[in-house]
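Changelog-adjacent note: as of this version, every example in the card shows the full chain rather than a window. The one below runs 148 residues end to end.
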Amino acid sequence: MIEKRKFLLFIFIFLLLVGVYAHFSEKKTAQNPPASHSIVFHAEELCSKYFPNETYPDKMNEIAGICPKYKNNHTAVVFCWIGCKLVKSGINAYECRGGKIYKLVVDTRNWTLISLTPSNWSEVIEVVYAECPKYIEGISENSQEESK
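Full-length structure tokens:
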């Protein structure tokens, strides 16, 4: 009987230790900080820096588009969508509507603002979906040619 109690106590302590170990090892892997130097992080920081008072209870600020390499390797374009209203567009889907769009051209070496101008959806589509991919593809083609 004493042997059975010792065995059950051993099993209980073993399971307790395994549970505690799993709990602490899980927390260590889950606490990886977000990449603070990503283009999205800087885009959000820039939009909140230059448009800090544009958030109201029923309105919000969003990123309308990002071009990480615009014109050269040291400039990026961030389109800030300021004061848009979140509306329901499906069962569990929402989207922003209204508001204003601004184009911020920034120097990515030190994340300083080069220019800030009013913009529109036509320019967002033109830059992000037309100009930016061509330029990024051109950079990768040039770098491949240089490596040969």
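Structural remarks: The chain is about 45% helix and 30% strand.
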